[in-house]
Design goal:
This protein is mainly alpha-helical. It has 10 helices and 2 strands; from the N terminus they run H-H-H-H-H-H-H-E-E-H-H-H. The chain has 2 domains: about 160 residues, no CATH class; about 110 residues, no CATH class.
């Protein structure tokens, strides 16, 4: 496949994915719930599949079930449908991994598998669950903040990409991501802040200074998430986390910035 075909494939996939995500957010609460629960499920399945390829046995099905249960539970708690006390049910269910490993005969390193099992919950499942806090930030469902966050991430990635191509010379973190440059990161930061100011003119979800703070969180935590994902793939000795999205790799490849940015955004929204 030549470069033009690859670029065309990436553009078509990106446009289709963006259309699905944006429409699910705008249509309403339940379309958001279905689409993001599905993405969460697929991202978790992808993570545990990669771990299993390295001959570790983190019990993929149990991890995905608990991760999806966390998303569902946080959704209904955030919308006020059920009491937050039901969060405590997650702990005994998550501890079932120890019982499973006691009877697992073909796992030579059970505690490492257990650690990777919990990593999937904290690294992938938890950030998706926290998105429910974002969309219910005002006490009712509103897509503005999460949509704005994702638009800022896309703007930052686009700005970083073109700035890096045009001006990139100084490597940002060559050991884990050789193509990233300081010039690209600065270009992404400028684009993110500019886009956040633009969003604040049309959005009532947050004040302008809050949108600008969200943009700075995206610049730092989003880049951090991208580098963490690169470190993960280099550890696994793979190019992409999957092949689910033509031209883009897997779900972890596409949502790496969002996964690390969301927890920081939630903390910011709750504290300020």
């Amino acid at each position: 496949m030549n470069k033009f075909s690859e670029l065309y494939q990436r553009i078509i996939s990106a446009a289709a994915g963006a259309a699905i995500i944006i429409s699910s957010l705008i249509i309403g609460e339940w379309s958001y719930f279905i689409v993001f629960l599905t993405i969460s499920l697929l991202a978790q399945w992808e993570f545990y599949r990669l771990i299993k390829l390295q001959s570790y046995l983190p019990i993929r099905l149990l991890g995905v079930v608990i991760g999806c249960s966390l998303f569902v539970l946080s959704f209904f708690v955030a919308r006020g449908s059920i009491d937050p006390k039901y969060y405590f049910a997650i702990f005994p269910v998550a501890s079932l991994i120890f019982l499973v490993k006691l009877y697992k005969k073909n796992d030579n390193n059970p505690f490492l598998s257990i650690a990777l099992f919990y990593l999937g919950l904290t690294y992938v499942a938890l950030p998706f669950a926290l998105m429910n806090v974002v969309v219910h930030y005002h006490g009712y469902y509103s897509y503005e903040i999460l949509l704005g966050l994702m638009l800022i991430i896309w703007a930052s990635d686009t700005g970083a990409y073109f700035s890096g191509i045009k001006f990139g010379k100084r490597k940002l973190f060559e050991r884990h991501s050789p193509k990233k440059s300081w010039e690209g990161a600065i270009g992404g930061a400028i684009t993110a802040v500019a886009f956040s100011i633009l969003i604040s003119r049309y959005s009532t979800g947050l004040a302008q200074w809050q949108w600008m703070c969200v943009a700075m969180i995206v610049v730092i935590a989003g880049t951090y998430g991208d580098l963490v994902e690169s470190m993960f793939k280099r550890t696994m000795q793979i190019k992409d986390s999957g092949a689910s999205i033509p031209g883009h790799g897997g779900f972890l490849d596409r949502f790496d910035s969002l996964i690390l940015a969301v927890p920081f955004v939630v903390v910011f929204l709750k504290l300020f």
